[in-house]
Amino acid sequence: MPLVYTLVKRKDMSKGATEGSTLYHAQTSITKQLTLNKICTRIENLCTASRGEIILVLDGLIKVMNEALSDGESIHLGEFGSFRMVAGSKGSPTIDGFSTALFNRAHIVFYPGTMLKNIVNTVSFERYVPKKDASSESSGGGNTGGTGGDGGDERPGEL
What's in the keyword line of the UniProt record (predicted)? Predict the structure, then answer.
C-alpha cells in the first residue's frame, strides 16, 4: 500500500525567493496504527506460536532492551536494525564546571537494517484528495484522520 500524502502551502525559504512567495510541499500522513495486539495476531497467523507465547517473547524483548539501553549498550537485531541511546550536552568553559545538569534530554535512535532499508527503495506514494462536499469545504478537509507527521523531520529514526 502506498504512503498517503497531502499538499500543503509553505513559505518559500530557498535562496533568492521573493518576499511572500510560497511553494507546495508533500506531507505524508499516518493512516492507521498497528498496535501490539494486532502485531501479535499477525504473527500468530504466520507461525505455530500462540498469542501468549508471542506476547511473552515481545515483553521479554522490551525488558531486555530497557536494561541494555540503560547500561549504555547498543542493541543489534540482525537485519531488523539497531537501537542506541544518545545525548548531547551544553558546553562548559572548564572541566570542573561541567556537570550532568548540562546534558540535553536523551533519545533512543533506531538505525534500520537491510530488511527495512529495502522498503524505502520500493515505496510508492498516493495523493489524498478530500471529496468535494459541503462538510469538507466548511471544515477545510485535507486531513486523513491519522496522527500526522510532517515528513520533514531532520532526525529520522529518533524515538
Answer: DNA-binding
Other residues' Cβ atoms within 10 Å of the Cβ of residue 95:
6
User: Strands 125-127 and 3-11: what pairing?
Assistant: parallel
Q: Which of 51, 53, 7 is nearest to 27 (CA)?
A: 7
Q: How far apart are CA 110 and CA 123, in angstroms?
A: 19
112-144 in b/e burial notation, b at 16+ Cβ within 10 A? beeeeeeeeeeeeeeebeeeeeeeeeeeeeeeb
First to last CA, the chain: 24
pTM: 0.64
d(CA 79, CA 57): 18
Residue 84 — very low, low, confident or very high, per pLDDT cuts 50/70/90?
very high
Query: Is the model more confident about 1 or about 104?
Result: 104
Would you give the distance in Å from CA 31 to the centre of its chain? 13
**26-79 pLDDT, tens digit each:** 999 888 899 999 999 999 999 999 999 999 999 999 999 999 999 999 999 999
3-state SS assignment for residue 8: strand
